[in-house]
Specification:
This protein is mainly α. Helices cover 68% and strands 0% of the residues.
Length: 192
């Protein structure tokens, strides 16, 4: 994001927050809470934990903003805080009932005007089953493997972008991703 047309860059917002500008924090939250929640959800596997992790990570951003250095990318630092917070949350064992994000209100069915087709419903059910199996399979991964898998396959980040988030080399990211994929192939082999 450039500073000229779309407002200040993330790095400029971080510097403003370091200088005490509370409005900068509001803008950081507005820009990044969705992505932070997405990473937290993919790591924790449920809505309530992801909400808790996102809130805790935002508190840490506010408290630890002085630890961020302009030489490092702000988004990478933010996602590292979020993913570490998610792993810490899992280690503490605070788990909530799993609730899929796509459950609940379906406007096309509420009015009674559109009925789902049998084929569409079957595909939806199968997709939900696969999503549930993947969520369970992610739990067998180590914290580092899970972070790499989530950032690569759910967030679409390049390996070179993931390395600073994890604080490691691109080679280490490749190793974690390779091992994660191998474990997931074993866990989900029957879905082929």
């Amino acid at each position: 994001m450039t500073g000229s047309q779309s407002g200040p860059t993330d790095e400029n917002l971080a510097l403003a927050l370091q200088a005490g500008d509370e409005g900068a924090f509001d803008e950081i939250v507005r820009r990044h809470q969705g992505r932070m929640y997405s990473v937290a959800y993919r790591i924790t596997g449920n809505r309530e934990d992801a909400l808790d992790v996102t809130q805790d990570a935002l508190v840490k951003v506010y408290q630890k903003i002085h630890a961020w250095q302009p030489s490092g990318g702000f988004a990478s630092w933010l996602l590292r805080l979020t993913s570490n917070q998610a792993i810490d949350h899992l280690r503490r064992g605070r788990r909530h009932r799993h609730e899929r994000l796509d459950e609940g209100f379906r406007p096309e069915l509420e009015g009674g005007t559109t009925e789902p087709s049998a084929q569409g419903t079957a595909m939806e059910v199968r997709g939900g089953e696969i999503g549930d199996r993947l969520a369970v399979a992610l739990e067998v991964l180590s914290p580092s493997q899970r972070k790499v898998f989530v950032l690569r396959h759910y967030e679409g980040m390049a390996l070179a972008e993931i390395a600073p988030v994890l604080g490691c080399t691109v080679g280490s990211v490749k190793v974690h991703l390779f091992r994660a994929l191998r474990k997931l192939q074993t866990e989900l082999g029957d879905l082929r």
